[in-house]
Amino acid sequence: MKKALGAMLFYGRFALPFSRIGFRRRVGAPGLDADFSGQRWIVSGATGGIGRAIALGAALRGATVLALGRDVKKLDALAADAAGPGKIQPVPVDLSLMREVARVAREISAGGKVDVLMHNVGVMCHDFRRTGEGLEQGFATNLLGHWVLDAGLRAGGALVAGSAIISMSSGGMYGAALDLDALKAGDAAHHDGFTAYAQHKRAQVALTHHWNAMGAGQPRAWVMHPGWVDTDGVRSSLPGFRKLFRTVLRGADEGADTALWLAATRPPTGEGIWLDRHRDTEHAFGFTRGGADDRALVAALVEQAAVALAEPG
Predict the structure, then answer these.
(1) Per-block average pLDDT, block size 10, for the chain (313 residues)?
(2) Does residue 3 belong to any structural domain of this protein?
């Protein structure tokens, strides 16, 4: 009963602004006059949905896009569909395995500067599954991999002061106060797919603040969410939600719009999460507000996990 009431409150609060109707009210005609010629982008989770739309949109405007994904056939199809002066280079990688993410970071760094790093990959895992490295799959894919990729690119000199980091969060994070135990979900008894996903997306906001607090001479970072988009992930993970809201769900291009706009305009950083080219509050409900040290706690958690994986034995 409590969950049902919570869902009614959540959907009642966000059904309009997160829908296609809300997008059109805030953005209108979503044309973007941007030139990414000569830029080198990374887009994770690029083979479907929002990531695919971001990759194609960046290439259309001149960028060379390094498209990260696991399915080689889908990566090749994405590259073949690229239009415009830019191009898409497939980068096969399992983004749930940190050794694979670290390898890709080294290889990309050897090619020079990255202008835009788009942390787009995200999965909702209803069943508890461990990766080959012993981590809960959602935590590894949705959060730790972002940290490892970012750190590897910084270490390799690819992420520099002129680079932009854009993380794709979710409106689902509005229903979660940061909880480190739920965030990591170390065993099946403490795992709930909805809760874990919301925690990962809430933690992306904290990591964005951490990156922006690293000082001068570092990349700038933004965090956004795309509203409610009709993707393969929604179809497989949230069939009931999709059945209820299908007629007003956004298309992938609408979900990708703010990511491309942020990369082009690079507005001032600071508190807030971006939706439809506008900076919105990070907390729609008072109970989700944590302490001032949330960003430090999340950074320490993921750094500890990454160091533990790197240690021999």
Answers:
(1) 64 88 90 95 97 98 98 98 95 98 98 98 93 95 97 98 97 91 81 90 96 93 96 85 89 97 96 96 90 87 91 61
(2) no
CATH assignment at residue 224: 3.40.50.720
Q: Which of 197, 222, 261, 274 is catalytic?
A: 197
* Residue where the block lists tokens 């909702």: 124
Question: From start to end of the chain, where are the E strands?
Answer: 40-44, 64-69, 87-92, 116-119, 164-168, 220-224, 273-275, 278-280
Q: Residue 52 belongs to what domain range?
A: 33-310
Extract the tokens encoding 289: 């507000």
Q: Does the model's pTM come out above 0.90?
A: yes
- Residue 197 annotated among the catalytic residues of the structure: yes
Is residue 117, in this structure, part of any structural domain at all? yes
